[in-house]
Automatic annotation (TrEMBL):
This is Polyol transporter 5. Residues 1-24 are annotated as: Disordered. It comes from Theobroma cacao. It is a multi-pass membrane protein. Residues 1-20 have a biased composition (Polar residues).
Length: 494
């Protein structure tokens, strides 16, 4: 890949970038941008909580409503499949009404779904709540990273854009803690409280978003330069930096033919993306779709959802112990996703992504070996159980270092301004479909080829992912959003 500086067409932007964040300010975190990104990213708590809490609630739902294994898979995976609807709609919606109000819509939709699930008297009622909550999740997964990416300065974009994954992980941990502390309640009440509690953070998020600014890049596409300049002034270290960032955005919008248009709504973007993309845009779309595909093909969501089933197969049957182990898993995930977020802007996307996927390959092979030994022997030795627990925690931790946070960062930052919202929605839609398919087939496949067989397949998938990332994904650390497209142009022309 040719270096960015050799692209003469982008030379002015490179010079602007060097002036944008001079010398010692590279390590400074803008407090206003951080606060806005923090609020936007809290929508991801909703998905994380559902993933974590459903792993325990499904045990009681299965016993109380008397549903089959297939119905369990449908119930668990339906939220991911239905989030496809929200993620597809979110791109167009956010281009139309703005990024901020799309976040409000996401929280409100999930709130309705959570209440329906908590009050559900039957499987059909539960499914209705899952469908509505899934649509809200789809909206939040797409809009949180896009909004944060568009608001963030280049030097801290990796950290701020990885906050959604951090909040997903925090949500998972809270869900695990809910399972642990509510498990002692009567079986006909505990799972309802577990699911219904998700409505409360949705309310807080809806009100908190009112305090957030709109995306300056969306404002530029609408021709609202004064408003964009005010926000950039608050998210930049100096007035000069804000002016340079605004000029870059205006130039990028002009090049894409969407500047100074108060009626811009993203019309025709899908057609350009899918039917007649330029060579760089095609490569960007492939990269975004691929990283989202591999994120869910890793089986991370399924491992989290069904971890109690995995540990039961390993010989651990006490529910309190099962939930205690999942809390340890949640703490491990939270710690490592925080580590990744803090070092993304220092080490870059590619190194952490490679470390994460290679670590997952090793962990999944270890988990497969442990599961194979446990599955073939009636006596469950302690060392094999410990190996399986360590391997699960390691797999989730390496995911949290690499694919977890970097997928949201990378797929939201590589699209040009005009295509970012709807391009990200396509990539996230692939993410949701694969997550749903894996979640809805995990137990069935495991029953046919054993858990060990599933984990070996996942290890092979992560090996392919590692090779793909090494060959096809360029580093984006420290580049402005307006510069990143040149990385893909250079790759094609070299």
């Amino acid at each position: 890949m040719a270096p960015l500086e050799n692209n003469s067409a982008m030379a002015p932007l490179e010079n602007n970038s060097s002036n944008e964040v001079p010398g010692p300010r590279k390590s400074r975190l803008n407090k206003y941008a951080f606060a806005a990104a923090l609020l936007a990213s809290t929508t991801s708590v909703l998905l994380g909580y559902d993933i974590g809490v459903m792993s325990g609630a499904i045990i009681y739902i299965k016993e109380y409503i008397h549903i089959s294994t297939i119905e369990v898979e449908i119930l668990v995976g339906s939220l991911n499949v239905c989030s496809l609807i929200g993620s597809l709609l979110a791109g167009k919606t956010s281009d139309w009404i703005g990024r901020r109000y799309t976040i409000v819509l996401a929280a409100a939709t999930f709130f309705i779904g959570a209440i329906l699930m908590g009050l559900a008297p039957s499987f059909a009622f539960l499914m209705a709540g899952r469908v509505i909550a899934g649509i809200g999740v789809g909206y939040s997964l797409m809009i949180g990273p896009v909004y944060t990416t568009e608001l963030s300065p280049a030097t801290s974009r990796g950290f701020l854009s990885s906050l959604p994954e951090l909040f997903i992980t925090i949500g998972i941990l809270i869900g695990y803690l809910s399972n642990y502390f509510l498990a002692s309640l009567p079986d006909h009440i505990n799972w309802r409280i577990m699911l219904g509690l998700a409505g409360f953070p949705a309310i807080a998020i809806g009100f908190g978003v009112v305090l957030m600014p709109e995306s300056p890049r969306w404002l530029v596409m609408k021709g609202r330069y004064d408003e964009a300049n005010k926000i950039l002034g608050k998210t930049s270290d100096t007035e000069e930096e804000a002016e340079l960032r605004l000029e870059e955005m205006k130039r990028a919008a002009s090049n894409l033919g969407c500047e100074n248009s108060s009626h811009f709504s993203g019309k025709g973007v899908w057609k350009e993306l899918l039917l007649r993309p330029s060579r760089p845009l095609r490569r960007i779309l492939v990269a975004a779709i691929a990283i989202n595909f591999f994120m869910q093909a890793s089986g991370n969501d399924a491992v989290v959802y069904y971890s109690p089933e995995v540990f039961k197969a390993a010989g651990i049957h006490n529910k309190k112990k099962l939930f205690g182990i999942t809390v340890i898993m949640g703490l491990s995930k939270t710690f490592f996703v925080l580590v990744s977020a803090l070092f993304l802007d220092r080490f870059g996307r590619r190194p952490l992504l490679m470390i994460g996927t290679i670590g997952m390959v090793v962990s999944l092979v270890g988990l497969g070996l442990g599961s194979k030994f446990l599955g073939e022997n009636d006596i469950k030795p302690t060392w094999a159980i410990v190996l399986s627990i360590i391997a699960v925690c390691a797999d989730l931790s390496f995911f949290s270092i690499g694919l977890g946070p970097i997928t949201w960062v990378y797929s939201s930052e590589i699209f040009p301004m005009k295509y970012r919202a709807q391009g990200s929605s396509i990539a996230v839609s692939v993410n949701r479909v694969v997550s749903g398919v894996v979640s809805m087939t995990f137990l069935t496949i495991a029953h046919k080829i054993t858990f060990a067989g599933v984990f070996f397949i996942l290890a092979g998938t992560m090996t392919v992912a590692t090779i793909f990332f090494f060959i096809f994904l360029p580093e984006t650390k420290g580049k402005t959003l307006e510069e990143i497209e040149a990385l893909f142009e250079d790759k094609v022309s070299s």
